[in-house]
Amino acid sequence: MVLGSSGTSADDVLAVARGAARVELAPEALAEIAASRAVVDALAAKPEPVYGVSTGFGALAVMHISPELRAQLQRSIVRSHAAGMGPRVEREVVRALMFLRLKTLASGRTGVRPLVAETMAAILNAGITPVVHEYGSLGCSGDLAPLSHCALTLMGEGEAEGPDGVVRPSAELLAEAGIAPVELREKEGLALLNGTDGMLGMLLMACADLAGLYTAADITAALSLEALLGTDRVLAPELHAIRPHPGQAASAENMRRVLAGSGLTGHHQDEAPRVQDAYSIRCAPQVAGAGRDTLAHALLVAERELAAAVDNPVVLPDGRVESNGNFHGAPVAYVLDFLAIAAADLGSIAERRTDRLLDKNRSHGLPPFLADDPGVDSGLMIAQYTQAALVGENKRLAVPASADSIPSSAMQEDHVSMGWSAARKLRQAVDNLGRVLAVELVAATRAIELREQSSPVLTAAPATRAVVEAARAAGVEGPGRDRFLAPDLAAAERFVRSGALVAAAESVTGPLA
């Protein structure tokens, strides 16, 4: 992964955060870094105070710092700001955080020395991951405490996780990797802390995960429609063309392709005639499609943020060093919260379909709770309880973090974004959504097999049959007497989250949106 003038993509971030992609600094990036450092060095030599170079920070920005104390000033800001608490943050989040901060350093707008950027790249490449804690960022001025814990490792202080997964003193890990700790100079401590990198990294990973889950949700919705003998006529392209939301059309087309060739759809006029299916079936493309469009908007914001150089003060191309407010996380925080709302609603409609499959009064002939011997067996009754608990949790997680603000730094930083908190709760919401869809998958595949067992006429679509067979091969058991259900649900979650569900459907349909 070469950081330079070509820019950084979401795929680059994922490759470094979740994989072992190596990072290099292009010659032009090193030249830009050196040029901006020359500007900072020139300012440091002047008597006029410059924020972050020859002054304190935050509410202490009025304090002038003499040259002999400026190295101590940079060490002090890192040590004092590394004040996180709570559980450790996931390795992939920390790697994304560091890579995105390195991306900004490579822009040549921060005024650090090339040595600082090169050392950060070396730490990433060595598989050393600083210990970062859950709490400590208000999303303004950027993700201060999380980035400070990363900068502490750069200095050879604090703790980090080695490539073997063991947490040890950072100094030991750096020494084993042949990396010399950095002695920070003017502006460099501040430059390592002032960014929206944590919330942006989590946004990019959430977008990648949600893209897969939205396709998975279209598939599970199609299976539920089939199992409930619903009509696929509501998926006709001409119906979605007259309400031209692109996400809606994509979801409807996914469902239509999954259901192609089904012998289960269209039986809504048989024994218990229905003019229309319930909203959770009929409106599946509208709800999932709205989420897809929300995701597209979030990706647009993420792409803009990826193109940004977030620091304060910033070194401009004309050599000016200017204070600014670009570290405020509002743009990222808003879309993080928006995605949490969309994830909650997608899970909510999936749970309603599951409940309909289990209710003998609304399932159009399926046994109560899809049980083998209802009364003796409880079937999937409590699986729906688990699903409902997850949906309830996601509704709570959908409450916006960005609507809150707590003043800090003696009222100098009197409005903050809470973007880090928005990102942390979105990660939980995404995990919960995967589990919700897994329960729908378990119910829908069991219901489809029960339908097929009841009549030779009721045959599933080829894509559905591929999904059922792949799920069974992955350890998701089908109909039968009650058994220990948690392993089935765990296998279904892995099947959904790994992309195996989508791959199974696409083996028949071809690529889905």
TrEMBL record:
Keywords: Cytoplasm, Histidine metabolism, Lyase. One of its GO terms (cellular component) is cytoplasm. Its EC number is 4.3.1.3. Its main location: cytoplasm. Pfam families: Lyase_aromatic (PF00221). The keyword Cytoplasm applies. It is found in: Cytoplasm. Contains an active site 4-methylidene-imidazol-5-one (MIO), which is formed autocatalytically by cyclization and dehydration of residues Cys-Ser-Gly. The modification 2,3-didehydroalanine (Ser) is found at S141. InterPro entries: Aromatic_Lyase, Fumarase/histidase_N, HutH, L-Aspartase-like, Phe/His_NH3-lyase_AS. There is a cross-link at C140-G142 (5-imidazolinone (Ala-Gly)). CDD domains: PAL-HAL. It is an enzyme of class 4 (lyase). GO terms for biological process: cinnamic acid biosynthetic process; L-histidine catabolic process to glutamate and formamide; L-histidine catabolic process to glutamate and formate; protein homotetramerization. Pathway: Amino-acid degradation; L-histidine degradation into L-glutamate; N-formimidoyl-L-glutamate from L-histidine: step 1/3. GO terms for molecular function: histidine ammonia-lyase activity; phenylalanine ammonia-lyase activity. It catalyses: L-histidine = trans-urocanate + NH4(+). Belongs to the PAL/histidase family. This is Histidine ammonia-lyase. It comes from Streptantibioticus cattleyicolor (strain ATCC 35852 / DSM 46488 / JCM 4925 / NBRC 14057 / NRRL 8057). The lineage of its organism: Bacteria, Bacillati, Actinomycetota, Actinomycetes, Kitasatosporales.
